[in-house]
Amino acid sequence: MAEMLAFEFVSPERLLMSEEVEQVVVPGTDGDFGVLAGHAPVVSTMRPGRVEIYNGGSEPVSYFVGGGLAEMANNRLTILAEEVIPIADLDRAAIERQIRNAEEDVEDAKTDERRRQAQERLDHLRDILTALSA
Amino acid sequence: MANLKELRKRIGSVTSTQKITKAMQMVAASKLRRAQEAVEAARPYAERMEKIIGSLASSLQGSDGAPKLLVGTGSDQVHLVIVATSERGLCGGFNANIVKGARQHVHELIAAGKTVKLICIGKKGFALLRREFEDRILEVIDMSHVRRLGYNDALPIAQKIMRMFDDGEFDVCTLFYAKFVTVLTQDVTPLQLIPAHVETAGESLDADLGGAVHEYEPSEEEILEDLLPRNMATQVYRVLLENAASEQGARMTAMDNATRNAGEMIDKLTLTYNRERQATITKELIEIISGAEAL
Questions:
Q1: Is the backbone of residue B102 left (phi > 0), alpha (psi -120 to 50) or beta?
Q2: What does the pLDDT look like over B234-278, one tens digit per residue?
């Protein structure tokens, strides 16, 4: 049995997960990195992407995060993420459809403010799709 | 007799009022519990965020690269005051107290020759401030569509404040809200959002590592730059949650008082009603007896 890593997954609204896991892959701003037990202390921001949690089985449990922060210290990894969606809950076709809608919204936007909002939404959806394809 | 009928009607109406206030109190109590749970649940994130920012900020203190959000623009001429109130009334002095605190603050700033801009969250505060500061209120943020307060409700507010700050529209931003102390007490508290008030006295993140040092990816400055806006949103979120809990607490207390007052009133009215009724009976008896005697 491999050494375990204490892992906490926190969103602004609540503590999502607090348990021992084998390995977590974090989408750091400077590139993905895997964290195993005994990893060196590190603080890193995250880009929108997928967090993969390996616990026992060969298949990881994956979550989409919309950016945030990861801190590793004393064999404890804490991830602070604002938006967290289980990858299993995401439907590729639905997101592609939403992206097409958002693209139309950007083109149709009447004011700059509307266009900016639509663009933000579009970028966000593309981030999700990228994470899904990874 | 007209008087008796009137009394009966009043007792009836006070009784139904009491039923309503009683129901409102119970609704507020259950909402309060949920609001308190939400405040509790939001705590881990805020605490960890605060710790990391505190340690980053203290290590970067004094350097030229410190972000403006932390050190301010170097001026304090233009103030933005955000007043967070509720969307509904019937919650005792809740809104009035917040507005009172904010109003005092605004008057002090104006007296000191500063420019003041206002943003209201919740229409009750706007209603109270409109007459005095109409031309200073930039915006009213309507929260009445929000059923269950989430982080996504706080985010746009924080982003708006950030955008205004980036455009140089103000130097200092203060938020007024009611801090939840107990069900009976809510303290009106000003919270300075910009320049961010950060506990820098907190120990360094590396303190409990036994000699090891954190690696930062990317640099400390960049992380702080990224975290401060997130922290703002977290703060706004926390304030909204606390405010919601305070509102329900205030409403619960107010409705409890109202229910008790209605009870007292019913007792008093019932007493008067019974006296009146007996007086009528006695009068009728006297009339009958004296009528019989006269025969």
A1: alpha
A2: 989 999 999 999 999 999 999 999 999 999 999 999 999 999 999
The total domain count for chain B is: 2
Q: Residue with structure tokens 């400055």?
A: B221
Q: Is A34 on the interface with B (CB under 8 A)?
A: no
Report yes or no: A87 and A62 within 8 Å, Cβ to Cβ.
yes
Do residues B279 and B163 share a domain?
no
A81: closest chain B residue by CA: B45
8 A C-beta contact, residue A41 and residue A47: no
Residues 6+ apart with CB under 8 A from A106: A115, A118, A119, A122
Residue A38, Ramachandran bin (φ over 0: left; ψ between -120 and 50: alpha; else beta)? left
**Fold assignment, A5-87:** ATP Synthase; domain 1 (2.60.15)
**B160 and B260 together in one domain:** no
Looking at the complex, does the CB of residue A134 fall below 8 Å from at least one CB of chain B? no
ipTM tops 0.85: no
What pLDDT shows up at residue A89? 84
Give the C-alpha separation, B71 to B74, whole Å.
Answer: 7
CB atoms within 10 A of CB A88: 9
**pLDDT, tens only, B190-231:** 988 888 877 665 556 666 665 567 888 888 888 888 888 888
Q: Where are the domains of chain A?
A: 5-87, 91-133
Chain A: give the shortest CA distance to residue B46, in Å. Answer: 7
Residue B91 annotated in active site: yes
Q: What CATH number did the domain enclosing B282 receive?
A: 1.10.287.80
* Chunked mean pLDDT (size 10), chain B, 295 residues: 84 96 95 92 88 79 71 85 91 92 94 92 91 89 85 89 90 92 90 79 58 78 86 91 93 95 96 94 95 91
Judge if B111 and B209 occupy the same domain.
yes
Q: What is the domain range of residue B289?
A: 4-21+255-294
Per-residue pLDDT, B82: 93
CB A90 within 8 A of CB A64: yes
Give the closest residue to B246 by CA, choosing from B125, B44, B67, B98: B98
In this structure, are B218 and B177 located in the same domain?
A: yes
